[in-house]
Amino acid sequence: MDQPLLGALEAGGTKMVCATGYADGTILESSEIPTLDPGATLEQVVAWFSSHDIQALGIGAFGPTAVDPASPRFGSILETPKTAWRNVDLLGALAQPLGVPCGYDTDVNAACLGEAIFGCAQGMSDVVYLTIGTGIGAGVMVNHQLVHGMMHPEAGHILLTRDPADPIGTESGCPYHASCAEGLIAGPAIKRRWGGKRASELADDPKAMALLAGYLAQALVTYILCYSPKKIIIGGGVADHTPLVALARPRVRELLNGYLVTPEIENIDTYIVNNSLDGRQGILGCLELARRALES
Amino acid sequence: MDQPLLGALEAGGTKMVCATGYADGTILESSEIPTLDPGATLEQVVAWFSSHDIQALGIGAFGPTAVDPASPRFGSILETPKTAWRNVDLLGALAQPLGVPCGYDTDVNAACLGEAIFGCAQGMSDVVYLTIGTGIGAGVMVNHQLVHGMMHPEAGHILLTRDPADPIGTESGCPYHASCAEGLIAGPAIKRRWGGKRASELADDPKAMALLAGYLAQALVTYILCYSPKKIIIGGGVADHTPLVALARPRVRELLNGYLVTPEIENIDTYIVNNSLDGRQGILGCLELARRALES
């Protein structure tokens, strides 16, 4: 019997990645559409998926967004700084014209799911996926289920302690918080400190890397203590193009200071890792969301 | 038909609270046994429950402890500072002589469960229970399930940013971390700063309360961002006998700085609350653990 054709959409703030594939993780085709005006962008997305005979769609959306199916705003983008997208019913705008079952979650929860189903966290019950790029987001799985709660985790905005050697000044890269992880580690903070440079251009600068690794370690320690995950997976451009993950590991141990004695912490090199799916963790998670929507 | 008689044990570092009751939350009898030498203490606990005809036992244990039934150390106390209890097979020492089905979790997860089944978080899917006493511990429910993961949350040890006005000095009340929540807010930190005083004796000291409330707010913001809970419930002596919870609420809002827009944050007085069950949240959670053990 033919496998049902599934659609996967990573709806990001910069681009929409559309793909088709199968439940086993095969990607057949994919296409990128820039995220511009909501109406025109979503029309293009619908047109792309309409031209393929998909039987379900999985959507991983940028946040904040309503991921609780019981919420009257389920599937809508919430109070995002991208004002044109505020209150856009993303799920409705796709599900109605396409007429197929749709799964919906945050982009980072989708990536977490991708790693837990197809990647380096296969079969694990408790997983944190962190992306460090223009922002920081965390997708979290607890007892095999993605975390939503009141809204969804916004663990990129946890408050960190400033390093006295940090040249960033009184403001940070986050408009809301002077000292949150996103405001100190993500792309805008890096540009602000180092004359508009990107993380990849600083990969060989030991001082810059040490500063960022120290902040990342602080954040990781909080995630370890709060979620007690079995693995932490780090993706996103800032982590992908620098040695930050490797540099953060010994700093995590220093900060924990022997408090947690577990095999995972003993083997920290396999506990805190870069993502495993060559950047496809998000779209593969969306494929899994589609599979679940079809089965449910 | 008679309801089955259930046993509930809050196994704390200071005392063992033993109780009998029914699945509906009725407590019939209870007794306290000081936590001293493991052998003698557990013998007394077994004797107490043996003298009642319980059909199942629910245990909420002090940590760190192995709560994963798949672990070879399930039910044992792990690397605790209470060295006599290290590696004690608490669950085995009770389940074997009593010969009844036993449920086992951390004391704080049991209290979280108590609030979610019988208390102010009834029916809620995502709940954080925090206790602030001689230490700080968090019990967490996500998607109606208690969080275990690699071990269990140790969210009392998350790192906070020191208040420059804090008179505590370079060390804190935690032997592991110079600036974790437990080391800055719990009993030992309070005694260290304020000449051996207890929190209750400082309830009317606005400077002391403001310092502690600021730290508590930092921790709460992290829990909100990480767990996205639908309610946060705070118990333990330090919170019970001071206005800390009320004082922390406006500080939480300040730190979030408008970032999260949800009905829960709007109604922060019902979102971050003192415990609801007159100190019985832990033992009632143990009763529920017993009920589940009997049914499983």
TrEMBL record, chains A, B:
Family, similarity comment: Belongs to the ROK (NagC/XylR) family.
Record has Metal-binding as a keyword: yes
UniProt keyword terms in alphabetical order: Magnesium, Metal-binding, Zinc
What this protein needs as a cofactor is:
Mg(2+)
Q: What is the lineage of its organism?
A: Bacteria, Bacillati, Actinomycetota, Coriobacteriia, Coriobacteriales
Pfam families from the entry? Answer: ROK
- List the source organism: Collinsella ureilytica
Give the reaction(s) catalysed: D-fructose + ATP = D-fructose 6-phosphate + ADP + H(+)
**Per its record, how is this protein called by name?**
fructokinase
Note whether Repeat occurs among the keywords. Answer: no
